[in-house]
Amino acid sequence: MADQIPLYPVRSAAAAAANRKRAAYYSAAGPRPGADRHSRYQLEDESAHLDEMPLMMSEEGFENEESDYHTLPRARIMQRKRGLEWFVCDGWKFLCTSCCGWLINICRRKKELKARTVWLGCPEKCEEKHPRNSIKNQKYNVFTFIPGVLYEQFKFFLNLYFLVISCSQFVPALKIGYLYTYWAPLGFVLAVTMTREAIDEFRRFQRDKEVNSQLYSKLTVRGKVPVKSSDIQVGDLIIVEKNQRIPSDMVFLRTSEKAGSCFIRTDQLDGETDWKLKVAVSCTQRLPALGDLFSISAYVYAQKPQMDIHSFEGTFTREDTDPPIHESLSIENTLWASTIVASGTVIGVVIYTGKETRSVMNTSDPKNKVGLLDLELNRLTKALFLALVALSIVMVTLQGYVGPWYRNLFRFLLLFSYIIPISLRVNLDMGKAVYGWMMMKDENIPGTVVRTSTIPEELGRLVYLLTDKTGTLTKNEMIFKRLHLGTVSYGADMMDEIQSHVRDSCSQMQSQAGGNNTGSTPLRKAQSSAPKVRKSVSSRIHEAVKAIVLCHNVTPVYESRAGVTGETEFAEADQDFSDENRTYQASSPDEVALVQWTESVGLTLVSRDLTSMQLKTPSGQVLSFCILQLFPFTSESKRMGVIVRDESTAEITFYMKGADVAMSIVQYNDWLEEECGNMAREGLRTLVVAKKALTEEQYQDFESRYTQAKLSMHDRSLKVAAVIESLEREMELLCLTGVEDQLQTDVRPTLEMLRNAGIKIWMLTGDKLETATCIAKSSHLVSRTQDIHIFRQVTSRGEAHLELNAFRRKHDCALVISGDSLEVCLKYYEHEFVELACQCPAVVCCRCSPTQKARIVTLLQQHTGRRTCAVGDGGNDVSMIQAADCGIGIEGKEGKQASLAADFSITQFRHIGRLLMVHGRNSYKRSAALGQFVMHRGLIISTMQAVFSSVFYFASVPLYQGFLMVGYATIYTMFPVFSLVLDQDVKPEMAMLYPELYKDLTKGRSLSFKTFLIWVLISIYQGGILMYGALVLFESEFVHVVAISFTALILTELLMVALTVRTWHWLMVVAEFLSLGCYVSSLAFLNEYFGIGRVSFGAFLDVAFITTVTFLWKVSAITVVSCLPLYVLKYLRRKLSPPSYCKLAS
């Protein structure tokens, strides 16, 4: 019978409504260019014409009919740009990846997931093998650790290059120095990386081991047996105590709570901090004792494992009764792994384990994020490599290709290998660690945590900021603000009036009930005749408040009576209900706000279980209601309902509340739509409340159809929706409620600062269009002067085509679009839509699913090539945060899931301003300066080597030996160069006061091919001066040329650091003098290194010569000639063309 329930009411009604809307839209559009074509688009299947008729790319195109056909969408042209260019650029990568993917799929073909039958307590009856219930978060195992880490390191061009260079030193013919000069820096980088990875891996292993070895009680025929979490199998009966983690996905069979239900905390699964109510299977809950689970023959039929944590379809069947008992199972009968039992002890049968659990299937491997600065430096490294090869070829050519020239070529490649410095990665990685430490230590943004230390520079390059609304821009703290009854509206300041109306109405009903001792029938007659007379305001308010206090999923929880079970005597109950420690638990803060408000006006929800609810009136009387059916809120229906029976009058009432768009089921009225719009403009979240009285016969008929629909295993949700819809007709409208979600502290100035900094802000929210629009206005995301273009609801290609053309004609206006319309636009006009949206000052996408949020981020990255940042606070924002170039999580009401998945975690939205303007700016500027300086340090010594080799008849002999080369990159220059991470161009206060300074950073001018070329020219000039100066001035002391040039080189580097610094820090001065002291003191020990070619010339350092005045003035002269022109140029540039921050500083 269940399979014969018609499906058409749901679909046909929706389709008819959509067609009516569409017709109204096109007729209302009025005559305008192209109006004669509108009829073509009223049919969805007319897409053939649209292929010939692309979207117009200009206003002129819109005005002119003919040009419509000649304008080609850019997206289609771009697709054709394949062929040789495509193959050279990306084709080979694509082909390699495809082949590798194909091989991997063949090697480990995934097992097909199937629905299953699970017998209670009989794991051996399972037809097929299921995965082990062990959690594994490790990246590597014992065998793959070293190869895996090495691959991650050597996939970077820089490290691979050094590996090849270092390995070449094992070939005697190519050896040009000590092995340690090449292997020591490379070994250091690898050792640091491997140690860090090993520590992280060991921590992951320990966490996994701790979770997998957690002990649980398993119920067997012999009684309770302890079992490890990793040894749990499908079919086992597992007992989970209060505050214990649920080890695998289970169906809830029994609980110690007499009500037959329990609460669980799901913040680790979906990021929501509200407790969820779960219901035990009634057949097993009714069994007298725990051991009886083995005396029955029963099984659970469960759908195949899937990702959706909010739905489940299954059936419970008990075979040993006549007839067999069938019970429908839904999401409320399940206990998912990684959730925590918040009340009572639960017993469940395991249905999914290990990789098939919902929590593991929803865990995506976060991508390794690489910063834009790292990619730019990688490109520069490749340019340096080409320069290195060119220089080596020039040297060999000038040598005249004598002897084994290819060997000489390789030796030159090795000699000049310092052009690409290995210390670049070491310095940058250490710099990133310092920036992260500075962010966490900043007193102005307390509680900030840096979770990804590799991308702090990204904070200084952002162009798009995508933010969630609830909990991110708003506090997720709901306050009841407005009650509207159609003829009268009550604001926050008129609540005492409502309170007196409720008190009067309750006492009146009490006296009616008191005077009516003959039974409930006369009262029911009086009630049923009431609608004919116009109701008084008091009774209407009382009806509305009663509906609000009955239609919800809120449960009162009493902290003080921890030891008392759910069922209490009435006298006891009364004293418990007056307890001060009552708190409300619900799956949404809106629900709690409504119930707290009814308590404040006199009607209090005092207790609730699965089958009943008790309310307390202002006079202290307790009203009992029996819950017959509960229809929870879903994102599709956008409403929730409950059917209750009043135990004093036996009346059955169906209450329903939901979003205004979903509540078109109420009787005709002339005020609802207008008032919903008014409240939305005030920034309130609206809910429409309605009711319908049912007779016993109507209810019995509904119940039988509903039960049948719930047992169906095919199209269950559609059949259930169809049955409920048959009940939702001609409902009496009771009231409209308005709840305010307060804005976070300083949201407005922060958004304004970000806008002034040139950052475009997109708000992506799951909330409805009206609320999203009003929050966008109240938070000043959209400024007062800007227009808002609300993108009409579109369902077909033709509608999207017209709506996009209408939007194209608007200038400088914010866009508001719903998730459904967005999906249609992206399906047909992805490129055009993104191009138009990117021109808007602000974009609001409402009714967005988590996957849509992530997709929007990816689209912006692909179409604009700009850096994106995603900000969120809940589990639904995790995918967006992980997809963005830089993810910021806020620790909020919805739990810690977003903040744990993010690259940076903050406590308040307003901290973003300082994080970007100050720390983002400094990180990028410092890393750019540090990277280029380290390259300069390598280039200058390579230039000196080139000059030296050309003077000595292009001989491939090293200028500086062994320790000098290692010392040059470490103790002699490391501290001053690394002290650049303390440099800052403007003070933090100035950066916050003038956010416009941030715009310059997004252009990437601090590190570009232009700045890089300037540094190359500086290096060539200085290297040439130092080497030629040493050779010209010291002809008589020629054997000391190494000592002279090296001393001048160290002094030049120290002076160049001083030239680069913009704001001095005392540690910089210490670093300069410390390095100079290290060099001077080491002269005494390193005399053997200061001869030219050591063996060839046999010259040693002459201490007496170094201390002469001649040596000192000549070294000083060379150093001055190499540095003075640069100081003069810097001074002139600051005077004639100062950068923007200098103007502010002065």
From TrEMBL:
- Membrane topology, as annotated: Multi-pass membrane protein
Q: Which residues cross the membrane?
A: 383-403, 409-428, 934-956, 962-982, 1012-1032, 1038-1059, 1066-1085, 1105-1129
Query: Does the keyword Hydrolase feature in the UniProt annotation?
Result: no
User: GO cellular component terms?
Assistant: endosome; plasma membrane; trans-Golgi network
Among the Pfam families in the record, one is Hydrolase
Q: What catalytic reaction does the record list?
A: ATP + H2O + phospholipidSide 1 = ADP + phosphate + phospholipidSide 2
- Active-site residues are 468
Protein name according to UniProt: Phospholipid-transporting ATPase
Source organism lineage?
A: Eukaryota, Metazoa, Chordata, Craniata, Vertebrata
Q: Which gene encodes it?
A: ATP9B
